Amino acid sequence: MEARSERNFFSFLGLPRKLNLDVADLEQRYRALSRQFHPDFFYNASPAERRASLENTSYLNDAYRTLKNPVARIEYLLKLEGMTTTATAAPPSLLEEVFALNEELDEIREARANGASADDIRVRLERARKPIEEKRDAHEQDLKALSAKWDAAGDRQVLESLRERILERNYINNLLAGIEKELTA
């Protein structure tokens, strides 16, 4: 097994550093390594070997959980490449949508405070949610296309585009969560 400082989830599972993985192959590799590292097989081993078994099992579970999810896989690859996926402000490409949605939510809250019916509020929130969901769906398609580009060329510019889409996707999901919160209020 490789040194801890050199390993990453892809190499640990014997997979190429690609974004489109064969999920059945990932599952098969995970199960094989699970059997190899399982703590039950190290019951009579030295304390160091038992600890290594537990560490490998934990790392394997983290690797599998991350790599089986396409978005988590992208975020992990970006992290490996030294790119952050957290933003403190709305991405510039979403400023117009953020402004419009916040304005609409303020109006909806005011209407609710002034006694608007729950049905009217729900209809307005559903209408506000629709363009944000469409934006999210477009981002999902962009992520798939960019993932294929990364797998084909491994281009740093593609990684930067993936990073931007992930930041936007996260912000879009936060906008949708805000709408859901209003729907349940």
Please provide a written account of the structure.
The protein folds into two domains: about 10-70, Helix Hairpins; about 90-185. The protein is an all-alpha fold. Helix 3 crosses helix 4, helix 5 (about 95-115) runs antiparallel to helix 6 (about 120-155) and helix 6 runs antiparallel to helix 7 (about 155-185). The protein has helices spanning about 10, 25-35, 45-70, 70-80, 95-115, 120-155, 155-185.
Report the principal-axis shape: elongated
Quickly give the structural class.
Answer: mainly alpha
Number of helices: 7
Q: Classify the beta-strand content into a percent band.
A: under 5%
Order of helices and strands: HHHHHHH
Binned, the helix content reads: over 70%
Rg from C-alpha positions?
22 Å
Task: Please give the number of β-strands.
Answer: 0
Low-confidence stretches: 1-5
Biggest beta-sheet profile = none
For the record, the count of structural domains works out to 2
CA-CA gap between termini: 52 Å
- Could you tell me the mean pLDDT? 90
Summarize the model shown.
It contains seven helices and no strands. The protein has 185 residues and is mostly helical. It folds into two domains: 9-68, DnaJ domain (Helix Hairpins, Orthogonal Bundle), CATH 1.10.287.110; 92-184.
SSE topology:
Blueprint lengths: L8 H4 L10 H15 L9 H22 L1 H11 L14 H19 L4 H36 L2 H29 L1
Descriptors for this entry?
2 domains, 74% helix, mainly alpha, disordered N terminus
